[in-house]
Amino acid sequence: MKNVKFKGLRDILTKMKSVVVAFSGGVDSTFLLKMAKDTLDDKVIAVTARSETYPKSELKEAKNLARLIGVKHIIIPTSELKIKDFSDNPPNRCYWCKSELFKKIDVIRKKLGFNYIADGTNYSDRSDFRPGQKAEMEFGIRRPLLEAGLTKEDIRRFSRKLGLPTYSKPAMACLASRFPYYSRITEEKLKIVERAEEYLKRLGFFWIRVRYHGNIARIEVRKDEINKFLSCEMRKKIVREFKKFGFRYVTIDLEGYRTGSMNEVLL
Predict the structure, then answer these.
(1) CATH for 4-168 (3.90.1010.10, 3.20.20.300, 3.20.20.10, 3.40.50.620)
(2) Separation of alpha carbons 167 and 84, rounded Å
(3) Separation of alpha carbons 102 and 137, rounded Å
(4) What local confidence, expressed as pLDDT, does residue 265 receive?
(5) Most buried pick, 116, 181, 212, 243, via CB within 10 A?
(6) Alpha helix (H) ranges present in the chain?
(7) What CA–CA distances, in Å, run from 169 to 23, 64, 175, 212?
(8) SS3 of residue 216 by DSSP
């Protein structure tokens, strides 16, 4: 595959010699893992955290993707909810999550004698609000996709050419991102959001977020899918199920699906 950025990524990975990939199973980390495997062979492993904030369906998919790519895959338990600075849900919540993750991955890296930990941060992420980047700097995390100048669009295009099933996968964020800042996060609330989003996926919606505002569910879907909610049958089905989950009111966000909508209050 002839491309300056693609070649640049291969060169960066070659110089790293060995790497532990913080692997979520999302578009970016899957592409990075595939490229690392193709470049470094057995000098790459994937590590995925199993926690209350990570949907079970995503963990299952991460396992399948690691198997498809052919890399050793280690699952580690984390429990961010035990960290008060995380569960209280301040704007820098992600810093505490990433610190917990990288601390545990670094133990694995040292045990294996590998040179680096890398994550899927890409060039398009520069303008986003990402407090977790502080933890990346503290632990010396490498960001090969960003270093190579690869944008989200680049990654999706190359993923498709490489035959990765994630090329069209919606952007993924942990379930904690569904709650307004300073709204305490609990395991019970996370399970409610997970069940609600899984239900919508079964109905055929994939680019979705269910934002948790107490007894109100604010559903985000792509703008071209909002009309699907307006049919009487669909509306009744969703309202009926969401009330079973514990919501009293069920709303659709007319601005549609967008990542980081909870960050809009910070602007």
Answers:
(1) 3.40.50.620
(2) 36
(3) 11
(4) 58
(5) 212
(6) 4-16, 27-40, 56-69, 84-87, 93-112, 133-138, 144-147, 152-161, 187-202, 232-245
(7) 15, 15, 17, 23
(8) strand
Domain with CATH 3.30.70 in the chain: 175-266
Q: Is the pTM of this model over 0.85?
A: yes
Which architecture does CATH list for 175-266? Answer: 2-Layer Sandwich (3.30)
Summarised one tens digit per residue, pLDDT across range 206-248 is 899 999 999 999 999 999 999 998 888 999 999 999 999 999 9
pLDDT in tens, 239-267: 999 999 999 999 999 999 877 666 665 55
Judge whether 14 and 39 are in contact, CB under 8 Å.
yes
**Residue 48 has what pLDDT?**
98
Residue range(s) of every CATH 3.40.50.620 domain in the chain: 4-168
Query: What's the one-letter identity of residue 200?
Result: L
